[in-house]
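To illustrate the input format used throughout this study, we show a single complete record. The first block contains the structure-token representation of the backbone; no residue identities are included at this stage. The design step must infer an amino acid for every position from geometry alone.
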């Protein structure tokens, strides 16, 4: 099982500014979201064997909440969090820390695209990271971190959490899709019933602490269609070393995994959670403060 998780509500999101690769602390409401997420995943018996996170604080703190909730479960195992710069959000260049631009009604371009076209040749203008560069990062994380973990033993024994950012998570999902054989990825009927507009290529956005739940299973070499090879799938940087993964690839370089999409942007854990009024919920979280709950011993989940 793998869960792709977006970080919780942060200080810069509260101010409606573009965070990108800038660090941004969680708000009080964001910490409540992460607590709910960690408890929910543990109650669902998802005890992670590996946890990966962007190195940006808003993602890492979300990953910590998942690990901490697991630490007080009956199992008690707490894998270390592996941080990766490849899981960072898109670098928005000049637009980092800027307010979101409002699109003009008569324009065919987004407000950001329009501004970029008007200013891209000015001295010192820092352009945004391209989609191609983001895909390269997603490919690198998939090949160097995620797939070796899933391929190290039986997939059924691996439970992986990847905590990152909306744009990068979308790129990572596309990276996985382009490695998969035809008809090897399916969306569960109940997901399609709840989200009729969802397709494999367009799952939609991630809410704060929303997660994509994937169940993976190996496809036998016979079903995959022949012997393995070191062929590089189309669109993957040739510099990436795929040799350690040869036994998990078919004759075209595609991966011998089947994937079931069990949940898309799941936020069941946030049901009933409301932001504290008076600006408290929107305030930056102070790690030195203690809630009333912290004075009582936490119970273990059954």
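Output of the design step:
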């Amino acid at each position: 099982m793998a869960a792709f998780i977006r970080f919780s509500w942060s200080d810069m999101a509260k101010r409606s500014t573009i965070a990108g690769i800038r660090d941004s602390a969680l708000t009080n409401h964001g910490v409540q979201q992460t607590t709910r997420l960690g408890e929910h995943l543990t109650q669902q018996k998802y005890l992670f064997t590996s946890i990966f996170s962007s190195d940006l604080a808003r993602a890492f703190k979300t990953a910590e909440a998942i690990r901490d909730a697991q630490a007080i479960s009956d199992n008690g195992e707490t894998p270390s969090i592996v941080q990766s710069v490849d899981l960072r959000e898109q670098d928005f260049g000049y637009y980092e820390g800027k307010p979101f631009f409002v699109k003009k009604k008569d324009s065919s371009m987004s407000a950001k695209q329009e501004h970029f076209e008007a200013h891209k040749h000015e001295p010192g203008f820092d352009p945004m990271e391209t989609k191609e560069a983001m895909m390269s990062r997603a490919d690198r994380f998939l090949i160097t971190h995620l797939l070796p973990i899933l391929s190290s033993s039986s997939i059924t024994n691996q439970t992986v959490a990847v905590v990152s950012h909306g744009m990068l998570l979308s790129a990572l999902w596309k990276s996985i899709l382009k490695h998969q054989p035809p008809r090897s990825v399916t969306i569960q009927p109940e997901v399609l019933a709840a989200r009729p507009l969802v397709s494999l290529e367009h799952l939609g956005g991630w809410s704060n602490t929303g997660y994509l739940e994937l169940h993976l299973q190996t496809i036998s070499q016979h079903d995959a269609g022949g012997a393995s090879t070191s062929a590089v799938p189309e669109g993957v940087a040739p510099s990436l070393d795929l040799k350690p993964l040869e036994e998990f690839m078919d004759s075209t370089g595609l991966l011998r995994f089947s994937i079931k999409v069990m949940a898309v942007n799941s936020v069941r854990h946030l049901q009933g959670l409301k932001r504290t009024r008076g600006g408290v919920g929107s305030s930056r979280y102070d790690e030195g403060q203690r809630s009333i709950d912290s004075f009582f011993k936490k119970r273990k989940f059954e």
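Structural context for interpreting the output: Residues 94 and 220 are 48 Å apart (CA to CA). The first helix runs from residue 11 to 14.
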